Amino acid sequence: GDSVTQMEGPVTLSEEAFLTINCTYTATGYPSLFWYVQYPGEGLQLLLKATKADDKGSNKGFEATYRKETTSFHLEKGSVQVSDSAVYFCALSGGLGGATNKLIFGTGTLLAVQP
Amino acid sequence: DSGVTQTPKHLITATGQRVTLRCSPRSGDLSVYWYQQSLDQGLQFLIQYYNGEERAKGNILERFSAQQFPDLHSELNLSSLELGDSALYFCASSVEPGEYQETQYFGPGTRLLVL
Fold first, then answer.
1. I want to staple B46 with a disulfide (CB 3.0 to 4.6 A). Which of A39, B25, B31, B34 is the partner?
2. Which of B56, B98, B99 is the closest to A102 by Cβ?
3. Does the beta carbon of B105 lie under 8 angstroms from any beta carbon of chain A?
4. What pLDDT band is residue B1 in, cutting at 50, 70 and 90?
5. What is the Cα–Cα distance from B6 to B1, expressed in whole angstroms?
6. pLDDT tens across A14-49, in order?
7. How far apart are CA B59 and CA B44, in angstroms?
8. What's the mean pLDDT in B6-35?
């Protein structure tokens, strides 16, 4: 079945460092890809999404490009801030032809940014 | 604020008991999804409703059931509770499930603790 694999955490960075969180997927069909963020004690918020190959999603300085050839959707940010500390989830939907757009999540990556 | 509301925020109960979690989707959204977040299973899709009808089922136990009412709010019923049911339960909503690029908006979650 469809699945998402993302890098194990925690990822610990200093403020203003470059961030990459790797995400790869396995899916039949043409899924949409998402990054969600969960701040401590809160629910999930959509960070960005991409719906077809070569699309780039971006928001709040974060970017991810849908790479069909490598089945990847890596999250990047050029300069992280302490306020970016959170758990980041990669997810996909619609891989089975759109019968349902339930989300399939990766295991989440904890990012800790130190001042 | 995503516009999705969930009550209660916290729930503490005993094994063998039954609880009901409630979700109100964003105004105009017809589709509701339930997810479970636990330490050992991660974030897993449970069930989806669209305009009152069940649309898809995921890893939902037989002891769990859900429904969506005419006013589009949804309830998740968990019965014969076990220690392992302790988790964060999220509700999400989207406009309709037909387009797999539809964004799902998540509520703040209900944290269930079974003692």
1. B34
2. B56
3. yes
4. confident
5. 12
6. 999 999 999 999 988 788 999 999 998 888 999 999
7. 7
8. 96
